[in-house]
Amino acid sequence: MPNIAKLKDILQQLDVKKVKLVAVSKTKPMSAIEAIYKTGHKIFGENKVQELVDKYEALPKDIEWHLIGHLQTNKVKYIAPFVHLIHAVDSLKLLKIINKEAKKHNRTIDCLLQLHIAQESSKFGLSEQELKQLLNHDAYSELQNVRIVGLMGMATFTNNTQQVRAEFQGLKRIFDETRITYFDNQAHFKEMSMGMSGDYEIAVEEGSTMVRVGSLIFGYR
Ligand SMILES: *Cc1c(COP(=O)(O)O)cnc(C)c1O
């Protein structure tokens, strides 16, 4: 069973700074999500498409589902009818397919572009240069059914808090520059999805607007 006291504790901490909590329920049973839902929290994140779809179908329809993990182009169609926010978009190709599938459902799908900020090579994401190339591309400006609402990043998995902080600061700098240069300070470009169980407090200090916390709430996987 999830740790409701911890959930409330985190929510209270985040509330002060108006930061949103995505409760990461991956690998956890429906019953665990229902227990959290009953407390009034309705924002959940999953990292696998099939699991996200299964949970969407079985659980209350007012849950706001976020896909936080890497998304393959051939799976976009399964989540396009209902997904609230896709956190880890890292190519123009993927964005085009999300746009195409969103259009079929008469929707505009909100997305975050994932930046590679960690030192580990295993993590997905765009470099700063690739981000600029994407946003400068003619094909990007033609997409009518996707909306970029911010950036997402994952810090290196390390105990070195100084390094983690520096990586989050790097994402914040890119976010600020991108908002001014490419989004003309538009209000909808406002989200910075950064921070997980091990580093969300640092992330919030460095300007996160949305943290993705799993194991602290649901227990270790
Ligand atoms: C699993 C996952 C999280 C949550 O991780 P915890 O350490 O359990 O809080 C956050 N973001 C992404 C992309 C994940 O895959």
Low-pLDDT regions:
none
Q: Report mean pLDDT, rounded to a whole number.
A: 97
Helix and strand run: HEHEHEHEHEHHEHEHEH
Tally the beta strands.
8
Coarse morphology: globular
Could you tell me which ligands this complex binds, including any ions or cofactors?
Answer: pyridoxal-5'-phosphate
* N- to C-terminal distance: 12 Å
Share in helix? 40-55%
Strand % is 15-25%
The oligomeric state of the chains shown is single chain
Structural class label: alpha/beta
- Compute the number of helices: 10
Characterize the largest beta sheet: strand count, sense, and whether it forms a barrel: 8 strands, parallel
Report the C-alpha radius of gyration, rounded: 17 Å
Biggest sheet: strands side by side, in what order? 7-6-5-4-3-2-1-8
General description of the model:
With 221 residues, this protein is α/β, with parallel strands linked by helices. The chain is 43% helix and 18% strand. It has an eight-stranded parallel beta sheet with strand order 7-6-5-4-3-2-1-8. Strand 1, helix 2 and strand 2 (43-46) form a beta-alpha-beta unit. It is globular and about 50 Å long. It starts with a helix and ends with a helix. The mean pLDDT is 97. The structure holds pyridoxal-5'-phosphate.
How are the SSEs placed, and which strands pair?
Layout: H1 4-16, E1 20-24, H2 30-37, E2 43-46, H3 49-58, E3 64-67, H4 76-79, E4 85-89, H5 92-104, E5 109-115, H6 128-136, H7 138-141, E6 146-153, H8 161-183, E7 191-193, H9 200-205, E8 210-213, H10 215-218
Parallel strand pairs: 1-2, 1-8, 2-3, 3-4, 4-5, 5-6, 6-7
This protein binds pyridoxal-5'-phosphate.
Pyridoxal-5'-phosphate binds next to β8.
